[in-house]
Amino acid sequence: MTETEQNGSAWVFGYGSLIYKVDFPVLESHIASIQGWQRRFWQGSHDHRGTPEAPGRVVTLISSPDSICKGVAYRVSHDVFEHLDHREKNGYERVPVNITLTKAGDRVDGITYSAAQDNHAFLGPAPMAELAAHISRSRGPSGSNTDYLLQLADALREIGEQDEHIFELEALLNS
After folding, report:
1. Tens of each residue's pLDDT in the chain, 175 residues
2. Which of 121, 129, 145, 163 has its CA 20 to 30 A from that of 172?
């Protein structure tokens, strides 16, 4: 248990919809990054951006030792995890990460939600045109898969992230 956790709060790193859809109380937030991970549209969404019969695609983290993934770090109280665990339930697990807070350069221990390749909803890689087509036709209780991608691309631009995977998919959907 880290010192922050002992004091009743913990850091959570958001790299997907947690960047733009903050539906939980936050004690503080910072643009941040984690090293050794890449964001990829390889996770199936049976519960938010698709259905069990026709899952959409959402981002997860893929190990990549030389990569840096930029997102937002939130310091939250422990009771927020009940909500986050429910929200990130479809194959995601809590993973410990070391988070760098961009402005201060401070490093903090925290968690992120990642969907491992052996989870029941993992769809894996596909050619970019196929990923874009899949996203364009998917819809679930939380809305269209296209909206998820476009909101994520906008949110990444706002924090200064240049994610080629996301921006290439966005260009394919907009063409």
Report:
1. 444 444 689 999 999 999 999 999 999 999 999 999 999 999 999 989 999 999 999 999 999 999 999 999 999 999 999 999 999 988 999 999 999 999 888 999 999 999 999 999 999 999 999 999 999 999 999 999 999 999 999 999 999 999 999 999 999 999 8
2. 121
pTM over 0.85: yes
In a domain, 82, yes or no: yes
> Can you tell me the distance from the alpha carbon of 74 to that of 63, in angstroms, rounded to the nearest whole number?
22
Measured CA to CA, the distance from residue 81 to residue 85 in angstroms comes to 6
Active-site residue list: 88
Angle CA(136)–CA(42)–CA(12) in degrees, nearest 5?
A: 110
Binning the chain into helix, strand and coil, the percentages to the nearest 5 are 30, 40, 30
Q: Is residue 174 part of a domain?
A: no
